[in-house]
Amino acid sequence: MKTKNGRQVRKAALAYSGGLDTSIIIPWLKETYGCEVVAVAVDVGQAEETAGLREKALATGACDFHLLDVREEFAKEYLFRVLRAGAVYEHEYLLGTSTARPLIAKKQVEVALATGCDALSHGCTGKGNDQVRFELAYQALAPELAVIAPWREWEITSREEAIDYAAARKIPVTATKKEPYSRDRNLWHMSHEGGPLEDPAFEPEESMFKLTVDPRKGPDEPERVTIGFEKGFPVSVNGEPLSPARLIETLNAIAGRHGVGRADMVENRLVGIKSRGVYETPGGTLLVQALRALETLTLERDAMHEKERLALRYAELVYYGQWFNPLREALEAFMEKITQSVTGQVTMKLFKGSAIVVGRTADDSLYSADLASFNMTGYTPQDAAGFIRLFGLQTRGRKRLSPRSAEAMAAGEHLRLEPWG
Fold first, then answer.
1. Strands 182-185 and 190-193
2. Per-residue pLDDT of the chain (421 residues; tens, 9 = 90+)
3. Do residues 219 and 345 share a domain?
4. Confidence (pTM)
């Protein structure tokens, strides 16, 4: 069978996770297109989810299987760049899935080209953001390859039908009709969507959470953790230098046992749909808060405010799947330059679901205890009078244009209140 644009497919590289969707895509591709399928699994920190994937992929019809461990690359070149930019989507989402997709797509393309594939396939639905993220990466890296998105082609319309499809072909999957959550896990976070969460009024059951304990059951004594940064990148925990992936894993364990890092939000998807998602990002939550605290010492006011403004745009680009967009790369250059002085340590106190910054030090701190104190030594308060007059010049100029307003104020008319109704 040919694709919708009339291209014949001989071999397709599938972004394979071993979950419900990609498990049934292998036989579907073979039945529908008569093509060979190369399963490409990319380890971005799924933990035990990568175990047994080779056997499962080959048993369900794949002609070849590739498992690529990119955890360190994911942490250093993707997650830490998003962190350094201060990118958070709609105030709460720390972009765990969004950041992983371009790297997964990049590795999938590399395998496809190396194994002679003429098509790329993914298991993203036609409603979500991931289809955009994968396919924009394909267009940037290998636009000559055909794209097959089964959820936009097959007759399956729900997870329940997908489960039935798998059962009919004796394909083992972890999803059940009793617990139909759609989850995505990587080094940075775990997301939970679907099932009862589709009702935004539904309170998540405690059993749903996997990376964080119930905050009420956390330790009865607070724990302090100190994170070290160099030029905006985290490099150590409690004085111990760690590789990027190991650092995140360490903070995940520390924050997770205190129930830190949960977010429950209704977000605006790129396609225009509002979607409810529950996220667990324990270590990432600590890193975001700690870096912000360090920047208050090391960035001057205008630089910090401009960085905050551009961080919103950076977050949108990542969420929208535009990682390989020149604008994202240009913003990256800005973030690298602006954070050259962001080096130091931040101490946080964790307790029963909360993470509070309790101390920060910086090699190039702009903070001056003498200037910040109420002691006027070394500071000339009289200088403020001229500054305030200049700062208020426009305000006084507008007032001169409204003499009637000034007369009314002098007469006390501003005190006359009109009754309601």
1. antiparallel
2. 666 556 789 999 999 998 888 999 999 999 999 999 999 999 999 987 788 999 999 999 999 999 999 999 999 999 999 999 999 999 999 999 999 999 999 999 999 999 999 999 999 988 889 999 999 999 999 999 999 999 999 999 887 899 899 999 888 877 666 666 888 999 999 999 988 999 999 999 999 999 999 999 999 999 999 999 999 999 999 999 999 999 999 999 999 999 999 999 999 999 899 999 999 999 999 999 999 999 999 999 999 999 999 999 999 999 999 999 999 999 999 999 999 999 999 999 999 999 999 999 999 999 988 888 888 777 888 888 999 999 998 888 877 776 565 565 566 555 555 555 4
3. yes
4. 0.91
CA–CA separation, 227 and 233 (whole Å): 10
Two tokens, residue 116: 């002679």
Residue 213 forms part of a structural domain: yes
Does 356 reside within a domain? yes
Element (H, E) at 231: none
Asked if residue 145 lies in contact with residue 80, where contact means CB atoms within 8 angstroms, the answer is no
Q: Is 119 helix (H, G, I), strand (E, B) or coil?
A: strand
Helix (H, G, I), strand (E, B) or coil at 277: strand
Contact 347, 360 (CB under 8 A): yes
What is the C-alpha separation between 354 and 407, in angstroms, rounded?
Answer: 53
Asked whether 353 and 258 are in contact (CB, 8 A), the reply is yes
Alpha helices in 34-85 (DSSP H): 53-59, 71-73, 80-85
- The domain of 122 spans 11-178
Residues 6 or more apart from 224 whose CB is under 8 A from it? 347, 348, 349, 350, 358
Q: How far is CA 10 from the centre of its chain?
A: 35
Name residue 416's amino acid.
Answer: R
Q: What's the CATH code of the domain at 68?
A: 3.40.50.620
Q: Which of 247, 328, 329 is nearest to 290 (CA)?
A: 247
Same domain, 221 and 345: yes
Give me the active site residues, please.
21, 101, 130, 182
Residue 352 lies in a domain: yes
Residues 21 and 142 in one domain: yes
Domain tally for the chain? 2
Token pair in block for residue 109: 């393309």
| 99 and 141 together in one domain | yes
Q: How many CA atoms lie within 13 A of 329 on its CB side?
A: 3
Task: Retrieve residue 98's tokens.
Answer: 């969004």
Query: Collapsing DSSP states into helix, strand and coil, what is residue 19?
Result: coil
Domain co-membership, 136 together with 253: no
